[in-house]
Amino acid sequence: MQCAEPDWSLSWAGTSTTFRNLFTTGALMIDDTNSICESLAYVNTDTATDRRTNLGLGDTEAFVDDRRSCSQATTKSVVAVSQVYELVRELGRGMYGEVWLARKRSSGIERAIKVLFQPAACDAARRELKSLELVKNLRHPRLLATEDFWVTNNRLYIVMELADGTLRGRLKHYQREGLPGIPADELFRYIAEAAEGLDYLHDRKITHRDVKPDNILFIHGHAKVADFGLARAYEQPLQSMSFVGSPMYLAPEMWGCKGGPASDQYSLAVSYVELRQGRPPLPPLPLLELMVAHQEGRFEFAGHISAAEQVVLRRAMASAPGNRYPSCRAFVTDLMSVSSQPRPTRISG
Question: Which residues form a coiled coil (predicted)?
């Protein structure tokens, strides 16, 4: 089954009382009024945009009618999950899924449950399942543990270790305090730990392929690499130019449907720069211009990133994979050896 991945987006329009009551009975009640399935009303953004514009914010039932089979499957899935877990509140969302704080009914242990928006037969869900099969038995202190996953009524659910937050969230915390980015001494620890997790994957012939601040989580002050939805064994070919990954962090070879451990190192270095200076090393650009900027290495660094540090970063972000470091840990070791700057000063105003 072929499903265009960006075609479905979440509708946060208000729902009618009748629709809400379908999913907020008994154990499915969440925060008294909000239900899981309220956040699972789908709209095809390519074909229904104009129609959605013409509808009032309260006309969610019209959207649900368009996707009746989807909502019916979702209802059954939510009921099945609710028998094992109490879904407490939503933790976050992305293009393909959302993550909920869940409490196991039998033990009270809290976990995170990721729910994919699209049916399990669609490409995004099938790719996630392949990745889960690849990493399900891997255990490392620097990888977020996947404890269980299953498909119920054509919906994929993934039970994961519960984290305290993401490095992107940590960056925003320091920016609110007036700093440009995460202080160097704290960031070095996170990046070094993420490098350990990535090298562990690489030693087992697995690449992550979507390393970015959103996918590096922290638990009790330590970093863990998460979200293995794009993880792939080296020998497995990539898709055609409908590439997967996040373009701002994507190594040049990944744009040409090739990739390996050095691609993850590139993305880790881009992530480091963004977390250190508060913005990525490349400006927001149209997709093809961004690809060229990656290939030509048009990186911009803030003043508090020293020349020696930039040399290390440019090597880790070299256009040719063979010119990068032999491992993520080697990159981080070199980075720390040349970085002895004091903590960044606060931004005035």
Answer: none
Number of domains in the chain: 2
**Which of 160, 188, 208 is at the close of a domain?**
160
Domain enclosing residue 85, as ranges: 5-57+76-160
User: Distance (Å, rounded) from C-alpha 347 to C-alpha 262?
Assistant: 34
114 is in an annotated binding site: yes
**Residue pLDDT, tens place only, 6-39:** 322 222 233 333 323 333 333 333 332 232 222 3
Q: Please, which residues bridge with residue 53 across strands?
A: none
Residue 156: strand, helix, or coil: strand
Taking the C-alpha atoms of 204, 199, 164 and 88 in order, what is their torsion angle to the nearest 10 degrees? Answer: -20
* Dist. CA 43–CA 50, nearest whole Å: 11
Positions annotated as catalytic residues are: 210
CA–CA distance from 111 to each of 120, 146, 193 (Å)? 22, 10, 22
For the chain, the straight-line distance linking the first and the last C-alpha, in angstroms and rounded, comes to: 54
For the entire predicted model, the pTM comes to 0.71
Distances in Å between the alpha carbon of 120 and those of 111, 154, 233, 292, 312?
Answer: 22, 5, 21, 35, 42
Domain boundary (160, 195, 224) is at 160
CA distance 120 to 150: 10
Query: Mind listing the pLDDT tens digit for each residue in 50-82?
Result: 322 333 333 333 323 333 333 444 444 555 577
**Same-domain pairing of 116 and 176:** no
Tell me what the mean pLDDT of segment 195-211 comes to: 94
Question: How many residues are present in the chain?
Answer: 349
CA distances, 154 to each of 10, 24, 71, 147 (Å): 18, 21, 11, 20
